[in-house]
Design the sequence.
């Protein structure tokens, strides 16, 4: 038997269809086109695996696959232990200034990945202040890439591990202590197993980030080739779209692998915290706390130095010959024709992405969570929503070129506009935002809609009067996440900007390429300040929301 | 005419049958209880009546209209969930008024109506508080007021008291019942607490493994359970294995007992007899009394107003009997004493095994 659908249920199904259509047009179809393109030649004729065979036979391309793997492994092997100790110090000790350290540890999120590479050039490049540290080795190449990636990925690994470490049951520790276990044994038998999944997850996230990042190898890679720069060279440099498609598919592999492994691990994760768990409260231990304080201080100093160098260098007349200060590098039009308009384009795009993206994603998550029945439609949305996590920005970027640039695509008018940049960026960061919204919705009593139905109140009214106010803090988080990512993203948009829609992050690459490194650093700093400003705005709004809509949380 | 008629309603999830061919009727103004252990399908049955689950087969007729395939929004009911599902960000007033505003009543009418409802559930003057600031019992009352606000033809209560502590539960049990009587609202309540069912309901549907085992008034259910499951689930009971001898005669523990036997049995058929602990007679057991047996008092457990005795019977059967404090004093029962008790034939229930 089937329940007859009322108006609400019909509208919800229509809306679900809308979300499916959105994800199909802006995710599935472009990716499908990319896949297909890798089997066709320049004229569109079907050539089977010819492009793939040519890829295998080109030594330089295969070499960059190897380069990508070992550089990613090395950066991951450095950043995960560092982030673990940092997160441990912040969650499991009584060390001082933990709040400050947390803020500093997350600072790199506000900057585009390539800003740390630019700082490294100022420090260790041909005119670097501390070139002697490298003992004759060039920073341009794997050394620079690895160091820059460590900074870029640090906050992400730190966040995952801090979350994992903050979940602990005091009773396990008390039991171990009562049984006479040594501190080392407790660490190995209680602490580590508890964060096993966090560690695995951090490993895969960082590996994928490094393998698919474009900004850093572009700026500091020199002649050291990786997959991400290969795509750019094939597509933008040589206009060899077919080979670009093949490299894109190859780049999808490590990300898909990491994605599958992460899912596999997540399924094995059992809830450590039961309702009766006693929260862990760290005990003071002077020696340990001071050692960790020194460690965290060192890391924080490195992060601040790297950001500080970029900020400082952007005001220097002519590094390192004339170290007097000037504003002139901020007259961006001297370095790149788009000048400040690139920044305003970015700002416009980020506002669009954050506002429109949060709306679409939250609405999609709400439909998945709150629609009664319609299992297939909801499953399709849920499946499509998970894909972007496994698709590197570069791959999504060239997929968009192929799809929207195809003659006869009615959406072709979007090509080269701010609109396509925004839509691409929303899709690129869809998964995390979707999961955040879903998580917030799942914390609500599933019977709210049943009660509303019995009271003859429409689901839309309940969504507006109850659901939205309750989840508004999470929505604000999503908004900020989308905004900052839109401000700093490079990889996808580097293929998609048009003459009037160049973005600040792309302009950094262009200025750096043209030798205007100080202006590139300056633009990076402007982005950091904007993201930082957005963060402050978010905190203020969150405080306001807490007062306006969250009063009921007070007892 | 019955307000609600449920006819052979079934619900299966794949191979699992949550509810099998459940049929019962609820008269106008009646209080019916769906009683059973967890997992027996009672909540699924209630959710089908609300339209929150789709029935696999069967019919639900409310006021003469077949509502089996109606969505919840087209049905006439108010519901109170175990979790209450109060909107956390709305005040008590807004929660109760939630269903009123959408019906387009005037503001002043709404205010008066909400106050009337809160008075009705015994919670006057708490309009500005948020649900988190109320006790469990108060939240329960708000949920009840919200459900009653739209004057539903049918009130559904899903384990409404199980989240409360024992004292509040007892109190609210009585209040809900008298409120229901006063308003005359037809009500179906789901519970796993047999005492709750016995004290509140006009009729009880006892459910087990997706089926309704018996649908009857509380006293009928208690005195004449239709199945061993009902006898065991409602109240306490003694089970004794027995065999069929002749109509009105069974053999248990090596002696013959008189009892009402079901028809269609052949001699030697395996039976189960059940008797309630309070039905075992000690006083006035005269020579000619039926079903006299000699027992030893093996154990006496003090329970307050009465004591539960474990009686040893020759043949190895043990019986539980409840002896009032009065009786213990008058007859002088102690652990180790020997007694002659009687099992009144009209109090014995015989089930084919």
Sequence:
């Amino acid at each position: 038997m089937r329940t007859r659908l009322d108006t609400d249920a019909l509208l919800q199904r229509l809306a679900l269809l809308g979300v499916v259509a959105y994800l199909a047009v802006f995710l599935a179809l472009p990716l499908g086109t990319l896949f297909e393109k890798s089997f066709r030649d320049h004229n569109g004729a079907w050539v089977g695996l010819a492009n793939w065979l040519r890829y295998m036979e080109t030594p330089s391309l295969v070499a960059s696959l190897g380069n990508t793997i070992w550089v990613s492994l090395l950066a991951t092997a450095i950043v995960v232990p560092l982030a673990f100790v940092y997160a441990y110090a912040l969650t499991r000790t009584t060390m001082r200034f933990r709040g400050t350290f947390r803020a500093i540890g997350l600072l790199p999120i506000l900057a585009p990945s390539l800003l740390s590479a630019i700082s490294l050039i100022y420090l260790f490049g041909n005119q670097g202040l501390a070139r002697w540290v490298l003992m004759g080795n060039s920073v341009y190449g794997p050394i620079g890439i690895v160091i820059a990636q460590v900074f870029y990925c640090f906050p992400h690994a730190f966040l995952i591990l801090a979350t994992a470490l903050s979940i602990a049951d005091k009773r396990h520790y008390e039991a171990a202590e009562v049984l006479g276990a040594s501190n080392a044994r407790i660490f190995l038998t209680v602490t580590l197993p508890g964060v096993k999944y966090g560690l695995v997850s951090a490993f895969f996230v960082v590996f994928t980030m490094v393998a698919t990042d474009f900004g850093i190898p572009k700026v500091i890679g020199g002649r050291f080739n990786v997959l991400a720069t290969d795509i750019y060279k094939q597509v933008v440099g040589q206009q060899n779209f077919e080979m670009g498609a093949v490299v894109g598919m190859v780049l999808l592999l490590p990300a898909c692998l990491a994605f599958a492994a992460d899912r596999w691990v997540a399924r094995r994760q059992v809830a450590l915290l039961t309702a009766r768990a006693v929260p862990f409260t760290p005990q003071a231990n002077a020696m340990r706390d001071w050692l960790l304080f020194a460690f965290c201080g060192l890391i924080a100093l490195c992060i601040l130095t790297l950001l500080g160098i970029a900020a400082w260098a952007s005001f220097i007349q002519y590094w390192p010959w004339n170290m007097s200060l000037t504003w002139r590098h901020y007259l961006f039009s001297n370095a790149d024709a788009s000048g400040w308009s690139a920044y305003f384009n970015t700002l416009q795009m980020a506002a669009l992405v954050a506002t429109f993206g949060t709306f679409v994603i939250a609405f999609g998550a709400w439909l998945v969570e709150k629609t009664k029945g319609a299992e297939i439609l909801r499953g399709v949305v849920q499946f499509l929503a998970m894909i972007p996590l496994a698709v590197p920005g570069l791959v999504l970027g060239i997929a968009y070129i192929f799809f929207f640039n195809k003659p006869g695509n009615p959406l072709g008018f979007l090509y080269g506009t701010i609109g396509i940049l925004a839509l691409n960026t929303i899709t690129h960061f869809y998964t995390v935002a979707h999961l955040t919204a879903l998580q917030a919705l799942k914390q609500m009593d599933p019977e709210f809609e049943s009660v509303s139905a019995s009271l003859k109140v429409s689901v839309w009214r309940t969504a507006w009067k109850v659901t939205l106010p309750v989840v508004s803090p999470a929505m604000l988080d999503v908004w900020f996440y989308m905004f900052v990512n839109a401000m700093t993203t490079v990889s996808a948009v580097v293929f998609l900007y048009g003459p009037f829609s160049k973005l600040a992050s792309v302009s950094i690459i262009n200025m750096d390429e043209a030798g205007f490194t100080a202006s590139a650093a300056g633009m990076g700093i402007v982005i950091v300040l904007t993201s930082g400003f957005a963060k402050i705005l978010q905190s203020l709004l969150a405080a306001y929301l807490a007062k306006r809509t969250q009063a009921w949380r007070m007892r | 005419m019955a307000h609600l008629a449920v006819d052979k309603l079934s619900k299966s999830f794949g191979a699992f049958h949550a509810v099998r061919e459940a049929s019962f009727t609820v008269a106008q103004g009646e209080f019916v209880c769906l009683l059973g252990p967890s997992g027996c399908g009672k909540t699924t049955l209630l959710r089908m009546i609300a339209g929150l689950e789709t029935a696999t087969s069967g019919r639900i007729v409310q006021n003469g209209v077949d509502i089996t395939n109606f969505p919840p929004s087209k049905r006439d009911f108010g519901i109170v969930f175990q979790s209450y599902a109060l909107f956390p960000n709305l005040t008590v007033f807004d929660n109760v008024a939630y269903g009123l505003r959408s019906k387009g009543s005037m503001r002043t009418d709404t205010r008066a109506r909400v106050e009337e409802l809160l008075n009705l559930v015994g919670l006057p003057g708490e309009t500005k508080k948020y649900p988190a600031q109320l006790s469990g019992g108060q939240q329960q009352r708000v949920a009840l007021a919200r459900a009653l606000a739209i004057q539903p033809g049918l009130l559904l209560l899903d384990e409404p008291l199980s989240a409360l502590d024992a004292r509040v539960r007892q109190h609210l049990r009585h209040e809900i019942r008298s409120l229901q009587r006063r308003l005359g609202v037809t009500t179906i309540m789901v519970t796993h607490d047999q005492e709750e069912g016995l004290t509140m309901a006009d009729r009880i549907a006892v459910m087990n493994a997706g089926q309704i085992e018996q649908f009857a008034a509380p006293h009928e259910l208690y005195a004449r359970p239709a199945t061993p499951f009902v006898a065991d689930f409602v109240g306490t009971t003694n089970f004794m294995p027995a065999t069929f001898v002749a109509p009105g005669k069974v053999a248990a523990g090596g002696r013959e007992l008189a009892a009402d036997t079901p028809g269609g049995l052949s001699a030697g058929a395996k039976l189960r007899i059940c008797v309630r602990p309070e039905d075992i007679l000690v006083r006035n057991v005269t020579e000619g009394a039926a079903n006299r047996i000699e027992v030893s008092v093996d154990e006496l457990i003090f329970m307050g107003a009465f004591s539960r005795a474990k009686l040893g019977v020759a043949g190895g059967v043990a019986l539980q009997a409840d002896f009032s404090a009065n009786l213990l004093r008058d007859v002088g029962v102690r652990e180790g004493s020997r007694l002659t008790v009687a099992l009144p034939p009209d109090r014995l229930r015989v089930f084919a095994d």
In short: The first strand of chain A starts at residue 316 and ends at 318.
